[in-house]
Amino acid sequence: MNYVISDIHGYYKEYLELLKKIKFKDSDNLYVLGDIVDKGPEPVKVLQDMMLRVNVFPLLGNHDYSAMKLLLAKQKGRDGLSAEEQMELKAWMQDGGAVTAKQFMELSEEEREDILDYMEEFLLYGEVKVGRGVYVLAHAGLDNFSPDRPLEDYHYSELIYHQPDYNRVYFKDKILVTGHRPTFKIDEQYRGMIFEKNNHVAIDCGAAYGERLGVYCLETGKKYYVDIQEC
Ligand SMILES: [Mn+2]
Hints:
By secondary structure, the chain is α/β, with parallel strands linked by helices. It has a single domain (2-59, 121-227), classed as Metallo-dependent phosphatases (Purple Acid Phosphatase, chain A, domain 2, 4-Layer Sandwich), CATH 3.60.21.10. Helix content is 33%, strand content 19%. It is built from seven helices and ten strands. It has helices at 12-21, 43-51, 62-75, 83-105, 109-120, 156-160, 183-186; strands at residues 2-5, 29-32, 56-58, 126-130, 133-138, 174-178, 195-197, 200-202, 212-217, 223-227. A hairpin with a 5-residue loop joins strand 9 (212-217) and strand 10. The longest helix has 23 residues, at 83-105. It is globular and about 50 Å long. The two termini are 32 Å apart. The structure holds manganese (II) ion (MN).
């Protein structure tokens, strides 16, 4: 089976619980649609777990992008960050990055390098074909969309910041799967639940807002949830 999850935001316990719930096994695949880090309690542990699994495919989210960029700049041991990077660092720390930065700095040099190497390989989009259809995967996006525009044409910034228009059908013959926008902000009726409409599947169930983590199975359309337990 092929599963998708998004916006884990450091909820390591809940992420493991969900994997258990779907009985995730070596022959399955899990696509993680970005925003793995920041906000929640254990972002580095989530990354380190994902790194060990060959059947987990990470896509880049805006939080992962900021984390990677700024931690990489720090790691390179430069004397200081540029004024622009200082501003970005401050904004990121205030937007949930502090927990990621702290846990990252507690690691050994080698562990830090492994994580940054891993994050540099994150995909920008995915396309998965299963029995009942084709699924296009991205963290957010697709900014400056046109149905004929090839996915590889999009700049990363068009795929990780821009929330889709959920009233619009993007692809007539494909389903667009995205995170980034918590479903209760799309429609209050979907609070804590996966949103499915207009050839969209929106899977950020608002873990970072104390709601839930959700997983969607591409083959069956089945949805699985775990409540966030605030500590
Ligand atoms: Mn996001």
